[in-house]
């Protein structure tokens, strides 16, 4: 399983313009089945819940805000490859 971090690297979208790529990805995202959407949303939830837990602990230790910011900054790197791989089968 190959991970794609940008929509430009998807083989199905390489010879399309930016607006065509974004439209194709949006259409593919809309075609996801409910279990696939649930799984994708659970992945997003597993990334975001620790951020809020770290923010709640900021009263005890301000350094947890740095960790929360780091997780938020890494959010696209964690979620986008999963989303691209789930949508890839609907791009054909």
Task: Give your account of this protein's structure.
The mean pLDDT is 92. The chain has helices at residues 18-30, 34-56, 64-87. The longest helix has 24 residues, at 64-87. It contains 3 helices and no strands. It has 92 residues and is mostly helical. α2 packs antiparallel against α3. The chain has one domain (17-90).
Quaternary class: single chain
Give start-end ranges of low-pLDDT stretches: none
Number of domains: 1
Q: So what's the overall shape?
A: elongated
Number of strands: 0
Give a brief outline of the structure.
This protein has helices at residues 18-30, 34-56, 64-87. It has 92 residues and is mainly alpha-helical.
Structure keywords:
92 residues, mainly alpha
Produce the secondary structure layout.
Layout: H1 18-30, H2 34-56, H3 64-87
Helix pairs in contact: 2-3
């Amino acid at each position: 399983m190959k991970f794609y971090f940008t929509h430009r690297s998807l083989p199905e979208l390489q010879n399309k313009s930016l607006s065509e790529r974004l439209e194709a990805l949006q259409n593919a995202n809309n075609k996801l089945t409910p279990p696939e959407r649930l799984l994708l949303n659970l992945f997003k939830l597993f990334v975001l819940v620790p951020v809020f837990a770290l923010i709640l602990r900021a009263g005890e230790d301000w350094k947890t805000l740095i960790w929360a910011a780091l997780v938020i900054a890494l959010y696209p790197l964690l979620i986008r490859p999963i989303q691209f791989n789930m949508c890839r089968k609907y791009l054909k």
